[in-house]
Design brief:
alpha/beta, Lysozyme-like, SH3 type barrels, 2 domains, seven-stranded mixed β-sheet, five-stranded antiparallel β-sheet, 6 helices, globular
Length: about 250
Amino acid sequence: MAYTNSKLVVYKKLSPNHSGRRTHSIDRISPHCVVGQCTAEGLGSWFAKASTQASSNYGIDKDGRVGLYVEEKNRSWCTSSNANDQRAVTIECASDTKEPYTMNSKVYKTLVKLCVDICKRNGKKKLLWFGDKTKSLNYAPKADEMIITVHRWFANKSCPGNWLYSRLGKLAAEVTKQLGGSPEKKSTSFKVRVNIDDLNIRKGPGTNYARTGKYTGKGVFTIIEIKSGKGSDTGWGKLKSGVGWISLDYAKRI
């Protein structure tokens, strides 16, 4: 197929750190956290060094500007996985330097726009987020589908950070809506381990909701829905039991 690059790019500095032409068509997008409030130029200079041994197709800087470092036709060195990078457009996003690696509103808005643009140019009408490594990597996308994958699935890293990770369902829905596709109506379901005795259960996703007066206690619990909300950096999880919501700041996904 004929590959193109985004017209949202305002800065271009091609990196020598790539593997040349892709061996798989594009059907994934992998957003990353830079771990720094970088500029497009600064990120480009870093990737321009052969000694860096890393790169991404695009970067979004702290002001929401888009840089191009590896053309979409080529495989970047970004997610510690040759198989993933061969089929993914990789995007480094300016972020804070500590967990949850928060990204500002300019960065997030540009990420939505860039994902829409990538999908359109590659003939996709849906961006999917399953929130599960095994399911995502084993899923065969339809011709009009794109899947979100993340670096933490391939290396011992937090990337893209818990701030963005908790919003990937929202990102997929926003992009799919702008593409005119139908969002996947799949419920999130995964298990978490709580290692404290007194984790509050609330009536809704946020500290602005009243406590139920109950605590989880230590143990393993099933989460069926995630929402962002006041008082939690990583989001709120709805318990399968139906008793309420817990802050995922204090629960480790297993």
